[in-house]
Amino acid sequence: MRFSTLFANAAFLLALVSAKCYKNGPNEPNKQLALDNIATVCKTMQGNFRSGLERTACVTNSATGNQWFFGIKCRPKTDRLLTFELCMMGLRREVDNCKHGGSLADGDWQYTSDANAGVCMDVKYINAHPRHRKRAIDTVSGTAGPITDEKDKKDVTITFGSVPPQPAQ
């Protein structure tokens, strides 16, 4: 009897958490770039989510030409509050556990942390602004302008509302 109860509980928990690591991405995905910027991304993404709402962000290291795409989606049919801590835990788990990032469905949330070659692209922003340029968000003050990765002294751009990378055809 105990074994069947344990088995049923394990099956229930597995249904709540579903993770997938990505197999493709840059040879050197620069996990430190992702880890250094997840807090800034989560400060922007936290808050109330309507059912089905997805918020995205992308961090580019222009010196290496690599990026990390982040996304969080509210899965239930009712509105939810995403805390800073939940955001950090979900996005960081995929960076820590998967070489090229991954996707994790955990309870109310779908987390995506995805390493890619190339720079971030925010099509809606670019098309809506005549100067056709992205804005960087300063990781300290939250104001627009160029920022620098202090560790490597390389330019880093964070783009919110990004388009996820499309698979190669």
Give an account of the 3D structure:
The protein has 169 residues and is α+β, with helices and mostly antiparallel strands. Mean pLDDT is 74; it is low at 3-16 and 131-154. The chain has a 7-stranded antiparallel sheet. A two-stranded antiparallel ribbon has the order 2-5. It is globular and about 40 Å long. The protein starts with a helix and ends in a 9-residue tail after the last strand. It has helices at residues 2-16, 31-45, 84-97, 123-128; strands spanning 17-21, 47-49, 54-61, 66-74, 80-82, 101-106, 109-117, 147-149, 154-160. The protein is 30% helix and 31% strand. α2 packs antiparallel against α3 (84-97).
Mean pLDDT: 74
H/E series, N to C?
A: HEHEEEEHEEHEE
Coarse morphology: globular
> What profile does the largest beta sheet have?
7 strands, antiparallel
Query: Roughly how much helix do the residues carry, as a percent range?
Result: 25-40%
Q: What oligomeric state do these chains adopt?
A: single chain
Radius of gyration using CA atoms only: 17 Å
Helical stretch tally: 4
Q: How do the strands of the widest beta sheet line up side by side? A: 1-6-7-4-3-9-8
Sequence stretches where pLDDT stays below 50 over 5 or more residues? 3-16, 131-154
The rounded distance between the terminal residues' Cα atoms is: 51 Å
Helix/strand class: alpha+beta
Count of DSSP E strands?
9
Q: Classify the beta-strand content into a percent band.
A: 25-35%
In short:
The protein is α+β, with helices and mostly antiparallel strands and 169 residues long. Helix content is 30%, strand content 31%.
